[in-house]
Design a protein that fits this description.
Layout lengths: L2 E15 L3 E8 L3 E7 L17 E9 L4 E11 L1 H4 L2 H17 L7 H16 L5 H21 L18 E4 L4 E4 H6 L1 H4 L3 E2 L2 H12 L12 H18 L15
Parallel strand pairs: 3-5
Antiparallel strand pairs: 1-2, 1-4, 2-3, 4-5, 6-7, 6-8
Helix pairs in contact: 2-3, 2-4, 3-4, 4-7, 4-8, 7-8
The structure holds zinc ion.
Length: 257
């Protein structure tokens, strides 16, 4: 027998199904990522969908029909109107929602991730207009926090091999193992670490900052072009190494509206 349940969530993605129906993926506070079908039928889908088509926190009444979920009703809990009104912010938020969509497995409840996602939406909503560079930085910062929450927190302080604290200017970046390895270890065991890449102190500093600080504090620091490029490469290498699916576009390209 079908059962009804209520949950609060944020729509991550959508795709059309047949003529009148649409599948949605949502990240919910109580059930993690869920997929559900919105049926058009003879009732206009538009009555349900306004809340499902824009970035918002919504109350969902879902029907568990054993094979799949369908949505019975929706109600908006919290809107992010400045995101919806600004093409650049909307692109940034879509990029972040895409990362959550491809980085999480269905039905794994994660209240920490839910909070981080709503904090991110609120911060982007309240932020002043964002440059493409700043948006790209924020998207990568979100990606780093997401990696940490889903179990891939990068090692940024101690060598992955010998566990000693890093010395400035004498370490390399190795994404498959998720962090930094000291020069001594990478030379000693060159066959294991041959793919480790040089990294500058400024880049590591920016990665630490992006992972640790709240989004509100990430609007200020100056972002030199070469440091930002190295930062993006490092975060993307982590995502490619650890996500089950590779993002649809690079973190920088995702923010060029
Ligand atoms: Zn070492």
């Amino acid at each position: 027998m079908a059962t009804l349940f209520r949950t609060t969530g944020i729509i991550l993605s959508r795709r059309d199904h047949r003529e009148a129906d649409r599948w949605y993926s949502a990240f919910t506070d109580g059930h993690g990522k869920v997929e559900f079908l919105a049926r058009g039928g003879h009732k206009p889908l538009a009555k349900l969908t306004p809340h499902l088509e824009m970035p918002a926190e919504i109350d969902l009444l879902l029907v568990d029909g054993r094979q799949y979920f369908t949505v019975a009703s929706t109600d908006r809990v919290r809107a992010f109107p400045n995101v919806y009104a600004d093409a650049g912010k909307l692109t940034l938020v879509s990029g972040a929602l895409h990362l959550v969509d491809i980085g999480t497995k269905p039905h794994e409840t994660d209240p920490v991730l839910y909070d981080e996602l709503t904090r991110f939406l609120a911060a982007v909503d309240e932020a002043p207009a964002l440059s493409a560079e700043r948006s790209g930085f924020l998207l990568a910062a979100f990606g780093l926090k997401l990696l940490a929450i889903i179990g891939y927190r990068p090692e940024l302080a101690n060598c992955l091999a010998c566990k000693d604290a890093l010395c400035p200017g004498s370490y390399r970046w190795y994404a498959p193992k998720g962090g930094v390895v000291c020069d001594d270890c990478s030379t000693r065991d060159a066959s294991q670490w041959f793919a480790a890449r040089p990294m500058k102190d400024e880049t590591l500093k920016l990665i630490r900052f992006a992972l640790a600080e709240r989004f509100e504090h990430q609007l200020r620091p100056h972002l030199p072009a070469d440091t930002l490029e190295a930062f993006h490469e490092a975060v993307e290498s982590l995502i490619i190494s650890h996500f089950p699916t590779i993002p649809a576009s690079s973190l920088r390209e995702a923010c060029i509206a």
